[in-house]
């Protein structure tokens, strides 16, 4: 069964993942379920999400799981964004920012000094995350022996 996800659902999956959730797409109904990623949410209280977690675990084969980007993958997205900045001083400053401890927080804070880049970053990041989700769909369809 080839998984086809409409643009609205794709956007919602991307948004859920970007906020630290693990997202599940019901292969037949298209229903989306999500709960916090236990690995990246300190203080995760599974009691609050028990109903959703049980629903998914009881019907695991009916869902496709989407996982958020790893910190390494997210860091690569930041590097790719910086690589396409033509202004050398800005490029070099942002490289320095992500080379220190707490690169994600430092990058986010540094972008406040560059409002024009901040908007570009949000678009770039969203496009990268969308492609990341599309790649997961393509891999699942390939794994199932089907082509898109």
Distance between the termini: 11 Å
Gyration radius, in Å: 18 Å
How are the strands of the largest sheet arranged?
Answer: 2-1-3
Order of helices and strands: HEEHEHHHH
H/I helix tally? 6
% residues in beta strands: 5-15%
Helix fraction bin: 55-70%
What coarse outline follows from CA principal-axis ratios? elongated
Taking the sheet with the most strands, its summary is:
3 strands, antiparallel
Report the strand count: 3
Poorly predicted runs: none
Overall pLDDT metric: 89
Category by helix and strand content:
mainly alpha
Structure commentary:
- With 148 residues, the protein is mainly alpha-helical.
- 56% of the residues lie in helices and 10% in strands.
- The chain has a three-stranded antiparallel beta sheet with strand order 2-1-3, sandwiched between helices.
- The longest helix is centred in the C-terminal third of the chain and has 29 residues, at 115-143.
Set down the secondary structure blueprint.
Layout: H1 7-18, E1 21-26, E2 32-36, H2 50-58, E3 63-66, H3 71-83, H4 88-99, H5 103-110, H6 115-143
Antiparallel strand pairs: 1-2, 1-3
Helix pairs in contact: 1-6, 3-4, 4-5
Key terms:
mainly alpha, 6 helices, 3 strands, 56% helix, 10% strand
Task: Give a summary of the structure in a few sentences.
The protein is 56% helix and 10% strand. With 148 residues, the protein is mainly alpha-helical. The radius of gyration is 18 Å and the shape is elongated.
């Amino acid at each position: 069964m080839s998984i086809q996800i409409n643009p609205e659902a794709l956007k919602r999956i991307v948004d859920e993942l970007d906020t630290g959730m693990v997202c599940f797409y019901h292969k037949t109904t298209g229903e989306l379920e999500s709960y916090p990623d236990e690995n990246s949410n300190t203080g995760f209280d599974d009691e609050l999400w028990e109903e959703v977690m049980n629903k998914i675990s009881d019907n695991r084969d009916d869902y496709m799981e989407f996982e958020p980007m790893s910190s390494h993958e997210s860091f690569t997205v930041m590097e790719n964004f910086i690589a396409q900045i033509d202004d050398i001083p800005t490029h070099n400053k942002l490289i320095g920012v992500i080379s220190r401890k707490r690169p994600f927080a430092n990058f986010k804070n540094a972008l406040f000094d560059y409002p024009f880049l901040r908007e570009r970053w949000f678009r770039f990041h969203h496009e990268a995350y969308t492609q990341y989700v599309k790649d997961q769909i393509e891999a699942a369809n390939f794994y199932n022996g089907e082509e898109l």
